[in-house]
Design goal:
The complex is a heterodimer of chains A (about 180) and B (about 400). Chain A has about 180 residues and is of the alpha+beta class. Chain A has one domain. Chain A contains three helices and twelve strands. In chain A, the strands form four sheets. Chain A has a five-stranded mixed beta sheet with strand order 1-2-5-8-11, with helices on both faces. A three-stranded antiparallel beta sheet of chain A has the order 6-7-12. A two-stranded antiparallel sheet of chain A has the order 3-4. The longest helix of chain A has 19 residues. The relative contact order of chain A is 0.19. With about 400 residues, chain B is α+β, with helices and mostly antiparallel strands. Chain B has three domains: about 80 residues; about 180 residues, no CATH class; about 110 residues, no CATH class. Helix content of chain B is about 40%, strand content about 20%. In chain B, the strands form three sheets. A five-stranded antiparallel beta sheet of chain B has the order 5-6-4-7-8. The chains are: A alpha+beta (about 180), B alpha+beta (about 400).
């Protein structure tokens, strides 16, 4: 595997781990699924008010995630934002999906250390992926980018972090339609 | 039926789902309150031209399949046939005034008929449910049966007031995921036609029919099913006929003579009718073949907190009734226990029975009567290893010589 293949595999696995730990289903997709790397699905215990064992059912739309894996040297941090150069065609894909398809999308940005030796620790006591994981959604005022071979700079707030602690709230917020929101 | 926005919306609306609103992509539905699954919503996609329209439909379908535990094709088939199935399964009844010169009926007569018909059907539901599913229910059969009755209420599906004709049916699609019992939904789909066949259309003037009913149902089961039915049809003010959907009479329901009523529904002590009924349903599902019929209550009894607290254990060799005595091949252990509410419980794991009663004397009597009823139903000479009869021992006494348990703890 190339370093890029390894980074991509680690990014998928990490997202799966974080989601699973938070009780969110992570459906991994094949490589031909329009750029969707996985779908995050909220589940609800339908027996929560019953004296029965938990039984979970899906609820709402899945959140499609397109993962991008990179290293620290390929991003910069400025004014509380992660500065990342996204390919125009990926930007356009996200815009197209938002306008023309049903499921909500996010871009997941998985940032690994520059030293591949620090990417993964797996010992008898420790299983650790050293990374940062952020999400980004296409802005409301996004417009089509003509040159798909070029790149566009995007700014991802550092607060858009995906972690075991935050992922549930983030997914819930992003898939909950406005009519349900207070 | 094809999977489309409309078919899914029709299904949800016919099953009480609430439309919470829509945006340009989805129509959002939440389950009816009685399903009791807060937090779930199903987005039904609207943009049919969208490339992922099919995926979004399948996703919505998957949520429904998980909730109803049924394939979407079956759900939609039911949705399409929901009304016709209810119509097809319905019981159609026409009441005729007995006085030909009077073309009116008192409202109370009609409502009384309906109330008794409904009570009879509920009794049938409860008895048949206990027989079929006691083995799958570990916790509280009575509670499950009550829930079943609530979810299976008869509803008017057609009404012609002027001719006192009406159709009543139940909606078997309500609460399909409530029980999680194998075979439950298939049984519920057919239970109303079975009630019509097993109960309503029986010829109660025929001796063989009565014997079959007595073989099939014990006294208490007959009382809850047939007593209200006889009250419904034995009314001098009207005559009853079952009809087709067009209210053309297909079978006249004859009144039942007092002697036949007494034969089918003997006078049963009604000191604690409901409690007794519930236990008999749990523990005495005697089939027409004479088999005791259940095994699983042993498990239910054993897991019901039996070993969680101090109980009294008494070996019983004999039980008495007037001048008869039943002697067991070997002593059976009877456990005296109590409920948190202070009711007395007697159970025998070997005999797979459990009774409870508000009083100590009552629980003894119920237990004693029940063992005798098993014996009477199964009969002498059947292969019941633990029951060995010895007749004509002239002794009448309380077979139970022990004090009530300490319920203070």
């Amino acid at each position: 595997m190339t370093d890029n293949d390894i980074k991509e595999a680690l990014s998928r696995a990490a997202l799966d781990l974080i989601a699973s730990r938070s009780g969110i289903k992570c459906y991994q997709t094949g490589s031909q699924d329009n750029g969707v790397d996985c779908r995050l699905q909220l589940v609800v215990n339908r027996n929560v008010n019953r004296n029965s064992p938990p039984r979970f059912v899906d609820s709402g739309s899945p959140l499609a995630v397109q993962m991008k894996a990179t290293t620290e040297k390929q991003v910069s941090r400025k004014n509380g934002n992660i500065v990342y150069r996204i390919e125009n065609k990926t930007y356009n894909d996200l815009l197209h999906e938002r306008e023309n398809n049903h499921q909500p999308w996010i871009l997941g940005l998985f940032i690994l250390p520059d030293d591949p030796g620090q990417w993964l620790t797996f010992t008898e006591d420790v299983f650790q992926v050293t990374r940062h994981l952020y999400y980004w959604t296409i802005p409301d005022d996004a417009t089509w980018l003509e040159n798909e071979n070029s790149r566009k700079t995007i700014y991802i707030p550092e607060g858009n972090s995906l972690s075991v602690e935050s992922i549930f709230e983030v997914v819930t917020r992003l898939i909950t339609p406005k009519i349900f929101q207070p | 039926m094809k999977l489309t926005t409309n078919t899914l919306v029709d299904f949800l609306q016919s099953h009480g789902w609430e439309n919470k609103g829509q945006d340009n992509k989805f129509i959002y539905f939440v389950p009816p309150k009685q399903m009791n699954i807060p937090g779930v919503f199903v987005p039904i996609p609207r943009m049919q031209s969208a490339p992922d329209y099919g995926d979004a439909l399948r996703h919505a379908s998957r949520i429904l399949e998980q909730i109803y535990e049924t394939d979407i094709s079956e759900l939609l088939f039911e949705a399409g046939n929901f009304q016709s199935t209810m119509l097809q399964n319905a019981i159609y009844v026409k009441l005729f005034t007995s006085d030909r010169s009077d073309h009116s009926l008192e409202v109370t007569h009609v409502t009384s008929f309906l109330k008794n018909l409904n009570t009879s059907f509920e009794g049938y539901l409860k008895v048949e449910f206990a027989r079929r599913f006691a083995s799958q229910i570990r916790d509280n059969l009575e509670k499950a049966a009550t829930k079943l009755i609530l979810l299976s209420r008869l509803r008017f599906i057609d009404l012609q007031f002027q001719s006192f004709s009406f159709g009543v049916s139940m909606d078997p699609t309500i609460g399909r995921s409530e029980f999680g019992l194998r075979g439950m939904n298939n049984w519920r789909d057919k239970v109303l036609p079975h009630y019509e066949e097993d109960v309503l259309t029986q010829d109660f003037s025929d001796h063989n029919t009565i014997e079959e009913i007595k073989d099939k149902y014990d006294e208490i089961e007959r009382k809850v099913i047939f007593d209200p039915l006889f009250k419904a049809i034995n009314n001098n003010e009207y005559k009853v006929a079952l009809t087709n959907q067009s209210y053309q009479p297909k079978k006249r329901i004859k009144t039942v003579t007092r002697a036949r009523v007494k034969e089918i529904v003997p006078n049963i002590s009604t000191n604690e009718p409901d409690k007794t009924l519930s236990f008999v349903q749990v523990i005495l599902p005697v089939t027409s073949s004479g088999d005791l019929g259940i095994r699983s209550p042993k498990k239910a009894i054993a897991s019901g907190g039996l070993f969680a607290k101090q109980v009294k254990r008494i070996p019983i060799q004999q039980i008495f009734r007037n001048d008869e005595v039943l002697e067991f091949a070997k002593p059976i252990e009877v456990i005296l226990d109590s409920t948190p509410e202070g009711e007395y419980i007697l159970r025998s794991i070997e005999a797979e029975i459990e009774v409870k009663n508000a009083t100590f004397e009552g629980v003894q009597k119920t237990f004693n009567d029940l063992l005798w009823r098993i014996y009477d139903t199964i009969g002498e000479g059947k292969n019941i290893s633990y029951l060995l009869p010895k007749a004509n021992i002239k002794e009448v006494r309380s077979w139970f010589q022990l004090g009530p348990p300490d319920t203070s703890s």
